[in-house]
Structures are given as C-alpha cells and as structure tokens.
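Before the break, one more example. Copy the sequence into your notebook; we will annotate it together after we see the structure.
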Amino acid sequence: MWEEIFLLSFMCLLTAILFSKFFFHIQPNEIKFHLFFFIYYLSCSLVCLVLLPFFLLRPKSVYNAKFGAAIMKHITKLYGLKWELRRGEILAEERGAIVVSNHQSSLDALGLYNIWELADKLTVVVKKELLYIMPFGLAAYLAGIIFIDRRNSKHAYDQLKITTDVMVKEKTKIWLFPEGTRNKDCTRFLPFKKGAFNMAITAQVPVIPVVFSPYYFINNEKFIFNKGHVVIQCLDPIPTKGLTLNDVEKLTNQVREKMVAVYKDLYKEVTANLPSDYAHTRMD
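Here is what the structure looks like once it is written out:
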C-alpha cells in the first residue's frame, strides 16, 4: 500500500512543479494567485502523507519535526523564494528558550522549514484547528507540534504548562506567534498576546525575537504572487531571570518594540531596489 502512496505522491508533486513553473510566466490574476496557494497546500499534504510511516517509528519526537522540515523545505523551490537567515548562531545554541516571531502568512512555515535544522530541538505552538486538517494535522501531531485550543483558556494554559516543563528539562526551543493570527497588513504588527512571555518568565528562560521581513512579493488585493527574498533576522535574546509575572506586560511591550523597529528597517532594505511601479503595500 505504501508503495502506491509514494508513487501517487511523487506523480502529484511532479505535476505541481510543472504547473508552478508554467504559471510564473502568466500575468497576475485571481486564478493564478489561488492556484499557487493550492499547490503549496497540496505539496505539503503529499509530503506529510509520505512522512507518516517514518514518524510512527518515534511518535511525538521533536526530531521527527527536524527530519520533516529537511524534506518540506524543498517546496520553496516551487516558488523561487530565497530565505536568508541572519545571526543564526542565536538559534543554534542549545538551550530552552521561547522564540517569538511575526506572522504574515502560511508561507511562514516554509521559512521555518529552512532554518529548523540549525535550531535543532524545536517545536511550534499552533491552533488546535490545524490538527483536523489531514494529513497535515496527524503528521504535525506525530512530529511533536503543540496544539492549543484558543477558545478554552484553561486547557491551553495546562497544555503550555506541560510544554514549559519539557522545554526546560530537554533544552527545547518553543516557537510562538504572539500576534495570535496571520497579519495580512504588512505595514504594522498586531498587538501581542502575553502567553509566550508568561511562559518565558515562569520557566526563567530567555525570549528570542525573530523578525521575518515583509512579504512584498505577495499582494492579496491585486492577486500578485512573485518570486521574492525574505530576511529572517534573529535578535539578541532577552533574559527573564529574576522577572516575575508582574513583569509580563513590560516584557511583552519591550519585545514588540524591538521587533517593530527591526521590521521597519528590513522593509526599507527588501523594497529599496524594487521598480517604482512594483505593486506592494507601502509603509507610512
């Protein structure tokens, strides 16, 4: 049975590659735009299907996630995206830590796949709804991804408490998106939720801010999805030793301010050499 699944997945992936290469030469339109995302989701699902039997050998291990990311990162080649990691040594250091980043699109996952190997023991906190999207949800569960129910704060808190204990004992980094949802407005950040910073202070581990530069190559209103360059900038870790839960709000604001400042600088950098008529959202 698995031989048939592998063969079918390979054929579908090959078809997706051919379609993506062909459609890059067509002028932007709504069909092309949504088809690009459909191919992205289809490719991820097919790879997850192939990975499932391997993940079953060591269920819920963070090393499953690392192995899966090493395969999934090649989906980037379908879209001509370049991910440039800066100061990666910060992520590479073996330690328990809370990693927080801005969240612009489902494509953020591709960026994560491309840096996962360097971060080594890493897991991600995602919304519980993703668990029910098959086969991605099952593969993510077996890869040790953490699902929380945002509508049930007590259950979410209990789950994160267990996760915090594992983070400290096994020196695992936990990646969260404090904006809480995808932010399609590339001109500003959404307000940060405090859960990640609560976890960091409770565990007395550092917060590592990571900023993804704006996805200037995607324009939802004009249905543009071009090739592009994304800078993933790691900032200096912010220690939490000695802080108490009374400092959560101050820490949250401190991290957000640092990330916003870097994001604005990256915006100027990645858009500096674009043609004057390039259809991207402009920052005030």
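The first strand starts at residue 81 and ends at 86. The longest helix spans residues 30-55. Try to locate both features in your own notes.
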